Amino acid sequence: MNPYEKKRRWKFFLLIFAILIGIASVFYTDSFVKKMEREEANQIQLWVKIQERSMFLMDNDNFTEIVESVRKNTKAPVVVVDSSGHITTYFGLDSTKTNYSTDTKLVYDSLYFVHQLSKMKAQHRPLDMNILGAPYKAYYKDSFILTQLRYFPYIQMIVIFLFLITAYAAFSSSRRAEQDHVWVGLAKETAHQLGTPISSLMAWTELMKSKFDAEDDPLIAEMENDIKRLEIITDRFSKIGSKPILEDHTVYIVISNFIDYFKVRTSDKVKFSITGDDQVRAMLNIPLFDWVIENLLKNAANAIENEGSIAINIIENLAKEQVFIDVTDSGKGIPRSKFDAVFQPGYTTRKRGWGLGLSLTKRIVENYHSGEIFVKDSELGKGTTFRIILKSSLTYEPTTA
Asked: Where are the transmembrane segments (predicted)?
């Protein structure tokens, strides 16, 4: 299992674990809320019984203390209505809306009572009361504390979710910065280490040409091409971590020159072709952009098991002033579920691969050339198309009639 698959599995397990914790919290709080509901219902029933007897025992001081004690311990708001539906008494409502003074008289907010009564009817069934032989109904709703408890687990889950997102973003940013630092250090050290043997190889080829009079020897010429290639690779690594210089180039020529170098070092069974607009231009850093094309062509060639073809098509999007570069192979293809995963560091389908090529490619295109790269299309057994989008260096003025 490659590192990306392991990381994805760990994320999945942690997500499932967080969901289970959230569900357990919701169920526990729900059971606690139901217990409080039963307690509040018992309190309201006791309040109703006290109210029914209060008319007979008003002169009893002990009973008066009991009434006051019950009222203090009853947290749920109550509204009592008579047989005609008129409100006769209430308890636990907002005093600023139930009974306030004006310049002329004592008034109350009738709409507030209507709203509260409708909420009570929606929450609980009324309790029947009998005061001096007259029927009444007592409506009540959840107390403020109970209402808060109902929403607490959901608020808790939202807070935990926001905290996890913030923590994940912070750790990811920190880890990415650390990885970038390691990448830059490794790349620059590699460039430094390659400098000495490349200089030595250049000196040896010059010595061979002068000693054996081999100025026109094709083998020496190919050796010099490979040395130049090593110089380009060294230059690539030295540019990692620093802002590269982008210059205006014809895209077709840059890609064509690299294909000429690459195809002689690839199997004869793989055929290369380049088509499309040969005049479109873009701002490129050639050593880094060649690296992009090299990684795509290597992946395409490795995907072709026997004979096959690799085609590059350059398209100009005049409306958006963009350049599309499609690299299509006739290889084994990529599952649609892996379209994004192929660009992750460590992802590879080869037994002896590091899984860094496409990750570097994406970084070079997006970070250094302000472009995009993605899997445009792929079908198992038929091939894959990668698309690169670059900003055109040509500005087009709309024509006027």
From this structure: 12-29, 151-171
Is the pLDDT score of 401 beyond 50?
Answer: no
Residues 177, 96 share a domain: no
Over residues 296-321, the pLDDT tens digits come to 999 999 899 888 999 999 999 888 88
Beta bridge partners of 316: 323
Q: Among 216, 240, 264, where does a domain finish?
A: 240
Long-range Cβ contacts of 124-129 (<8 Å, 24+ apart): 124/41, 127/44, 127/45, 127/48, 129/48, 129/51, 129/52, 129/80
Confirm whether 400 is domain-assigned: no
- Quote the CA–CA distance of 294 and 310 in Å, as a whole number: 12
Domain span at residue 186 reads: 148-240
| 113 pLDDT more than 60 | yes
Q: pLDDT (tens digit, 9 = 90+) per residue, 262-283?
A: 888 888 889 999 999 999 999 9
Packing angle, helices 3-54 and 61-73, rounded to 10: 160
CA-to-CA separations, 137 to 40, 113, 118, 167, 173, in angstroms, rounded: 17, 15, 14, 53, 62
User: What would the two tokens of residue 215 be?
Assistant: 């100025």
* 87-91/247-250 β-pairing: unpaired
Domain assignment present for residue 4? The answer is no
Are 372 and 298 in a shared domain?
yes
Asked whether residue 249 falls in the same domain as residue 369, the answer is yes
Token look-up 């971590």 returns: 241
* Alpha-carbon 216 to chain mean position: 58
Q: Which of 181, 205, 240 is the last residue of a domain?
A: 240
Stated as kind and residue range, the H or E segment containing 102 is none
135 in the same domain as 46: yes
DSSP states along 309-342: EEEEEEEEETTTTEEEEEEEE-SS---GGGTTGG
Q: Which residues have C-beta within 8 Å of that of residue 150, sequence separation ≥ 6?
A: 33, 142
pLDDT reading at 99 higher than 80: no
